[in-house]
């Protein structure tokens, strides 16, 4: 039996303090479900990237993530090139594993992201 892939979801945030809590709960539940069904590896994780927010996004992220093991957050001081920043944040993530499937999700998406298929 083949090992399931490790999934890293990179979620860029810019002035999203009102959406962080709901997004974290929804995405964490989905990750737990995918892990339980052996569709993704146990070391899969979420990585929120605060891309220079001017509101309390970073403070709210820090408070929410203090009890989460499979979630990390990175702060960039100013809004930068998204692709470049995602690669840098992934490299600096506290989760050091080989990633088989990195995905980006827009925090401000009004509708559900496309389903993840493995």
TrEMBL record:
Gene3D superfamilies the UniProt entry points to: Spore Coat Polysaccharide Biosynthesis Protein SpsA, Chain A
Leading EC class: transferase
All residue ranges annotated as the Glycosyltransferase 2-like domain in the record: 10-82
An example molecular function term from Gene Ontology annotations: glycosyltransferase activity
Cleavable signal peptide: none
EC number: 2.4.-.-
Keywords recorded for this protein, A-Z: Glycosyltransferase, Transferase
Stretches the record annotates as Disordered: 91-118
Matches recorded under InterPro entries: Glyco_trans_2-like (IPR001173), Nucleotide-diphossugar_trans (IPR029044)
Protein name: Uncharacterized glycosyltransferase ykoT
Organism: Helicobacter fennelliae
